[in-house]
Structures are given as structure tokens and as C-alpha cells.
Amino acid sequence: MQTAISWFEIPTADFERGIRFYETVLGITLKREDMGPTRMALFPGDESDSVGGAVIHMQGGNPPGPMGALVYLFGGDDLATPLARVEAAGSSCRKP
């Protein structure tokens, strides 16, 4: 069964400090990767895990802090289905 959360990103102002923090607190090793200008440190998991995430650092990205974490929700294979329910739930959609 697919979970609601598919991916999360924890932004950092100091990439190495953020990595050390999560590795120390969780007793894990994060895997460092660069994707263009974005630096990422992936939380451990395997392809069968349904949720993944990373500590990230990029210019102009979400700032660290209470408003900075980004969570991606799984909306199914066709996003038109959950988007059609948005107005009934009391909100609206706009194109970026």
C-alpha cells in the first residue's frame, strides 16, 4: 500500500553541520550526492521503502526553520483526482 508521504526535504544553511546533526541524533550515515546546484544527503533506505528524504542545501531554496521543510505527498497516478477535491475541501488551486 502506498503511503501518503513520498519524499521530504530538510533544508540547511550549513550543509555539513546539518548532516552531522542528523547523523549524530539518529545514529545513521547519510549518503552525499550533488544534483546540479543542489547538494543532498540522503537518508538511508532501499528501493522497496515507500518514503525517502534528504537534508538539502541550495541557493534560493526553502530556508531552514519552521517554514522550511518540504514534504511531498503522494496523490496517486492521476493528480486530477485529488485536485478535483480541493474546492470541496475549502481551498483552491492555482497554476505556479
Evaluate the radius of gyration. 16 Å
Order of helices and strands: EHEEEEH
Give the CATH class: Alpha Beta
- CATH homologous superfamily assignment: 2,3-Dihydroxybiphenyl 1,2-Dioxygenase, domain 1
Describe the main β-sheet briefly: 5 strands, mixed
- Helix count, DSSP H or I runs of 4 or more residues: 2
**Main sheet: which strands, in order across?**
2-3-4-1-5
The name of the CATH topology is 2,3-Dihydroxybiphenyl 1,2-Dioxygenase, domain 1
Q: Strand-residue fraction?
A: 25-35%
How far is the first residue's CA from the last residue's CA? Answer: 30 Å
Helix/strand-derived class? Answer: alpha+beta
The overall number of domains is 1
Number of strands: 5
Low-confidence stretches: none
Please characterize this protein's 3D structure:
With 96 residues, this protein is of the alpha+beta class. It has one domain: 2,3-Dihydroxybiphenyl 1,2-Dioxygenase, domain 1, CATH 3.10.180. Helices cover 17% and strands 28% of the residues. The protein contains two helices and five strands; from the N terminus they run E-H-E-E-E-E-H. The protein has helices at residues 15-26, 80-83; strands at residues 5-11, 31-35, 38-42, 52-57, 70-73. A five-stranded mixed beta sheet has the order 2-3-4-1-5. Strand 2 and strand 3 (38-42) form a beta hairpin. The longest helix is centred in the first third of the chain and has 12 residues, at 15-26. The chain is globular, with a radius of gyration of 16 Å.
